[in-house]
Amino acid sequence: MLCTTCGTRPVTSADGRCSVCVTARPAPPHGLMAAGPVPMPEALHRLRSPVLLGKAAVVLLGGVIATDVLALVAGTNLRSEFAGLGETGLFDPAPADRAEILYGMAGSLQLLAMLATAVVFIIWFHRVRINAEVFDAGLQPMRPGWAIGGWFVPVANFWLPRRVAAGVWTASAQTNPDGGWRTVSMAPLDLWWTLWVVSTLFTWSASKIYDQAELSEAAGAVTLVMAADGLDIVAAVLAILFVRKLTRMQGERAALGTTPLSVPSPTGQAPV
User: How many domains would you assign to the chain?
Assistant: First the structure.
C-alpha cells in the first residue's frame, strides 16, 4: 500500500502515510483530517528503470570497441604501406589507395557507432539522474537538465557530466536497510572519466597530425591514430563497467523505496 499523502512510498504509520510525510507534516491533533496532500518535491518524479537503456548502452559500447578493433586492423595495413616507402624509396599508389579507402571506411563506422552510443548513453545518463532526484535531491549538485546539457558546453563538458555523475553515484549508493550512510568507491566513475577525457583529447590531436602529415610522416601519424583507438577501447571497457555498476546500484536503491537520508548536500550548496 502506498502513502496516502505522496503516493510514492510504502505506508509506515497507522494513519496511512510514509516516514517522509510523517516527518514533513505531522498528523493533526485529536484525529482531525489533514487539509490535503502535501506535494513532496521528490514525488514530482517517478522512478523509471534504467536497465534496458543500460543494456543498450553496453551493447553499443561493445560496437564502439568492435569498430575500434577494425580501425586498428585497417591502420596496421595502411601503416605498412607507408612504412614501405621509407625502406625502398619507391611508392606504389594503388595498394596505398586501397588501404586508405579501407581505413576511411573503418573511420566512418567508428563515427556511426560513436554517435549511436552517445545518444543512448546520454538518455541513460539522464534517466539515472532523474532517479537520483527521487532517491535524494539534496545530494545532487546540479539540476537534472545538466545530465544532457553538460555534454554540449564547450570545454566545461570535460567536468560538468562528471560532477552530475558523482551526485547520482552517491545517492544510488545508499542501500543500507537501516538508513545508515554508505560510501561506495567512485573508482569505476573516476577511471572511466579520466580515460574518456584523455582519449578524447588524444584522438583530436592525433587526427590533426594525421590530416596535416606529409607522405614521409604518414606512417608515424597513422601510429598515433592507432594509439588513440587503443585508448578509446580502454575507455569503452571502463564505460561498460561504470554503466553496469551504476545501473545495478540504482536497482538495489530502488528496492528500498524512495525515502532520502537526512544528510547535507556534499557541496553544501543548492543545485544550479
Answer: 1
Nearest-angstrom CA–CA distance, 32 and 258: 27
CB 100 within 8 A of CB 93: no
Please state, in angstroms and rounded to a whole number, the distance separating the CA atoms of residues 149 and 144: 9
Range of the domain at 224: 48-254
- For 83, residues 6+ apart whose C-beta sits below 8 A from its C-beta are 219
Answer yes or no: is 58 within a domain: yes
Q: By C-alpha distance, which of 266, 249, 56 is closest to 169?
A: 249
Residue 4 domain flag: no
Q: What is the pTM of this model?
A: 0.78
- pLDDT tens column, 54-71: 999 999 999 999 999 999
- Tell me the DSSP string of 131-150: HHHHHHGGG-SS-TTHHHHG
Residue 263 lies in a domain: no
Contact 2, 9 (CB under 8 A): yes
Nearest to 159 by CA among 146, 144, 173: 146
Q: Rounded to an integer, what distance in angstroms lies between the CA atom of residue 54 and that of residue 164?
A: 17
- The Cα-based distances of 224 to 80, 186, 202, 212 in angstroms read 14, 30, 9, 13
User: Is 1 within a domain?
Assistant: no
pLDDT, tens digit, for every residue of 116-165?
999 999 999 999 999 999 999 999 999 999 999 999 999 999 999 999 99
